[in-house]
């Protein structure tokens, strides 16, 4: 599927936040996809009809931006285009919780978040510390499975061990570099890469797992030469671009 991503170069419409736009676009380019940073409600729905996949990220929400999210997600749902919801800091404020609840009506193909975000969606009492996770991903396997079953979609929990589940099938992916959480917007970029991979396979579980495995391999290789998070970022883009067919063979899946 890694080969299909480069051969098909899917157009991914990214309704993402101010912090992440640069890294999201560059990471998609490095992986072989084509980013379209279109979020305004005057054109978001129209662009979604042209896209191969859509990612909706609520990192810096505002009413006009949320309106564009609904327009794009609605078109994606109607046309069978895979779309990914990234519920950034959903447990932090009522506005974010209300926004995510409303967006779920468009039935995302994948929800990707950190452990605290997924717990916040699975339980009304869970909360995170802003965009940071206060839980480990492998601690929320059961809630992620339950959430995936309830939403009838794939749920991805990123962390030291990535969890990818559709409620019935569950994959745990290890790899990457311990400094990856220090690179702002890398989680947002992971959501966009999940969307890109879902565009080239009919199975969103396979697409999501492939995306997380690509990041795990590229992150591990980048970490070998990076001095810190500042150099890890460009090295990660380079390694993602340089990944050869068959690079995922060494990824640990459980």
TrEMBL record:
Species: Nocardioides nanhaiensis
Gene3D superfamilies xrefs: 3.40.1190.20
Pfam family, one: HK
SUPFAM superfamilies named in the record: Ribokinase-like
Protein name as catalogued: Hydroxyethylthiazole kinase
Upper taxonomic lineage: Bacteria, Bacillati, Actinomycetota, Actinomycetes, Propionibacteriales
GO molecular-function terms, A-Z: kinase activity
Chain residues that bind substrate: 37, 185
The enzyme's E.C. designation: 2.7.1.50
Superkingdom per UniProt: Bacteria
Function comment: Catalyzes the phosphorylation of the hydroxyl group of 4-methyl-5-beta-hydroxyethylthiazole (THZ).
Binding positions for ATP per the UniProt entry: 112, 158
Family: Belongs to the Thz kinase family.
Keywords: ATP-binding, Kinase, Magnesium, Metal-binding, Nucleotide-binding, Thiamine biosynthesis, Transferase
Catalytic activity: 5-(2-hydroxyethyl)-4-methylthiazole + ATP = 4-methyl-5-(2-phosphooxyethyl)-thiazole + ADP + H(+)
UniProt cofactor(s): Mg(2+)
Pathway: Cofactor biosynthesis; thiamine diphosphate biosynthesis; 4-methyl-5-(2-phosphoethyl)-thiazole from 5-(2-hydroxyethyl)-4-methylthiazole: step 1/1
InterPro entries: Hyethyz_kinase, Ribokinase-like
NCBIfam families for the chain: PRK09355.1
């Amino acid at each position: 599927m890694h080969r299909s991503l480069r051969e098909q170069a899917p157009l991914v419409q990214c309704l993402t936040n101010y912090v992440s736009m640069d890294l999201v676009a560059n990471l998609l380019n490095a992986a072989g996809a084509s980013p379209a940073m279109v979020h305004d409600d005057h054109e978001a729905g129209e662009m979604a009809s042209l896209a191969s996949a859509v990612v909706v990220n609520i990192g810096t929400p505002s009413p006009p931006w949320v309106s564009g999210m609904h327009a794009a997600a609605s078109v994606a749902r109607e046309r069978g285009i895979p779309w990914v919801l990234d519920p950034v800091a959903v447990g932090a404020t009522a506005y974010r919780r209300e926004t995510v609840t409303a967006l779920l009506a468009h039935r995302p193909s994948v929800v990707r978040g950190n452990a605290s975000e997924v717990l916040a969606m699975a339980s009304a009492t869970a909360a995170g510390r802003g965009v940071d996770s206060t839980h480990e991903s492998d601690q929320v396997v059961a809630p992620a499975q339950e959430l995936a079953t309830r939403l009838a979609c794939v749920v991805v929990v990123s962390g030291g061990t990535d969890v990818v589940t559709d409620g019935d099938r569950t994959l745990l992916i290890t790899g990457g570099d311990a400094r990856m959480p220090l690179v702002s917007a890398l989680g947002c970029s992971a959501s966009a890469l999940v969307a890109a991979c879902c565009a080239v396979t009919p199975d969103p579980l396979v697409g999501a797992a492939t995306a997380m495995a690509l990041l795990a391999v590229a992150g591990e290789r980048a970490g070998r030469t990076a001095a810190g998070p500042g150099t890890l970022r460009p090295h990660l883009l380079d390694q993602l671009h340089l990944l050869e067919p068959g690079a995922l063979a060494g990824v640990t899946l459980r």
